[in-house]
Specification:
3-stranded antiparallel beta sheet, 8 strands
Length: about 260
């Protein structure tokens, strides 16, 4: 039985992503939707100077952040670190929360790389979660802001999902979930949806039981038109570092193309 997830056509699903192709795809194939495009064009406040990729890492190295020290050994960030979800975006989320108060079932969908995080991918290193998240999320202040956001979402009984093209959501799922739960302890394991092996995030969501149980069966009963293939390739960057502790792999975002 399809659940009532809209009232007076008020969007009951909110989707945040920095990639317009993902937004176009989701908008085409999901109903009851509102989107927020996260701006990844503005460099992070710690990514400065002539080499912002390097300066971001060095900022945290100076703070003796162990994750940054390890990251520096592997080279610069593949992309200039952005700001991810900003206070302005959180205000937009608050507006959506207010106008959708009467909706029975509300869902929020977050991208991970350069949306929740400010960098692309992460290292497979589990012993320094505090330092890892400070680096990935752009500092202690933003860690607190995101924790507050997720707490507010759960308080308002919003179902929180992360849908990502980052293959670590499959390959390093236990670590990925640990990182998510660092800022959202109430996050449900099944709500981490990996779209790395699918044509699109909408296809991955519509194959996810945790999502479709909320979204209902009406949309699934209709033929899903073939979503557009991604037109550009974001390479998965893989590197390893031998140390006394372990071999570390960079896990980066990967998008499948023809």
């Amino acid at each position: 039985m399809t659940q009532k997830i809209t009232v007076n056509n008020i969007p009951s699903i909110l989707f945040l992503d920095n990639d317009q192709e993902n937004i176009t795809d989701i908008s085409k194939h999901l109903k009851f939707l509102e989107v927020i495009k996260v701006d990844d064009s503005v460099p992070n406040m710690f990514a400065t100077g002539s080499n912002p990729k390097r300066s971001y890492t060095k900022y945290f190295v100076k703070k003796r952040n162990e994750y940054a020290i390890l990251s520096e050994r592997l080279g610069d960030e593949p992309y200039i670190p952005s700001n991810g979800i900003t206070k302005s975006n959180i205000t937009e989320i608050d507006t959506w929360l207010k106008k959708s108060m009467k909706v029975t079932t509300r869902i929020i969908l977050f991208d991970w790389d350069r949306t929740i995080s400010v960098v692309e991918g992460f290292l497979n290193f589990t012993k320094i979660v505090d330092d890892t998240m400070e680096y990935l999320l752009g500092g202690e202040k933003r860690v607190k802001e995101l924790r507050s956001l997720f707490k507010k979402l759960h308080k308002n009984k919003v179902h929180v999902f992360i849908v990502t093209n980052n293959s670590a959501a499959d390959d390093l799922r236990k670590l990925f979930l640990a990182l998510i739960m660092y800022i959202d302890p109430a996050f449900k394991d099944d709500n981490l949806v990996c779209s790395a092996n699918e044509r699109s995030k909408s296809v991955a969501l519509l194959k996810s039981k945790s999502f479709t149980d909320l979204y209902g069966t009406e949309t699934l009963s209709k033929k899903l038109s073939s979503p557009p293939w991604f037109t550009r390739k974001k390479m998965m960057i893989v590197a390893s570092v031998a140390s006394a502790a372990a071999t570390v792999a960079i896990v980066n975002n990967y998008k499948k193309t023809i």
